[in-house]
Design a protein that fits this description.
two-stranded antiparallel sheet, single chain, 1 helix, mainly beta, 5-stranded mixed sheet
Length: about 120
């Protein structure tokens, strides 16, 4: 079973979440399916971290593949990737505006298949 990657340093007063990539997306993120991530308590504007911040954070700090366009288009998740926040579609949670909380489980599932 794939063990989640441990964060390098815990962030004091930050937000600890689990992020999982399936459907081939793990290839973009060190070929690891599950990651435990400690986010700062605030984004670059001083606001609590939300899903939009997480997407930027993942691209900047966790993505090891240069092909960012397989994950995001125009700074949002590309069509064909299902995003679940605690097992609920992120569209029901406000998409990029959902404010992350410690213990949240975020799942990215690619529904795109080659042919």
């Amino acid at each position: 079973m794939d063990q989640p990657e441990r964060p390098a340093k815990p962030i004091v007063n930050g937000v600890s979440i689990t992020v999982e990539f399936t459907g081939g997306l793990d290839m973009l993120f060190s070929k690891k399916r599950k990651h435990l991530i400690s986010l700062p308590a605030a984004d670059e504007n001083g606001n609590p971290p939300d899903m939009a911040f997480l997407v930027r954070y993942l691209c900047k700090n966790l993505m090891t593949d240069r092909r960012k366009e397989f994950f995001v288009v125009d700074d949002t998740i590309r069509p064909g990737i299902l995003v679940l926040v605690n097992d609920a579609d992120w569209e029901l949670e406000g998409e990029g505006n959902y404010v992350l909380q410690t213990g949240d489980e975020i799942l990215f599932v690619s529904t795109l298949h080659g042919g």
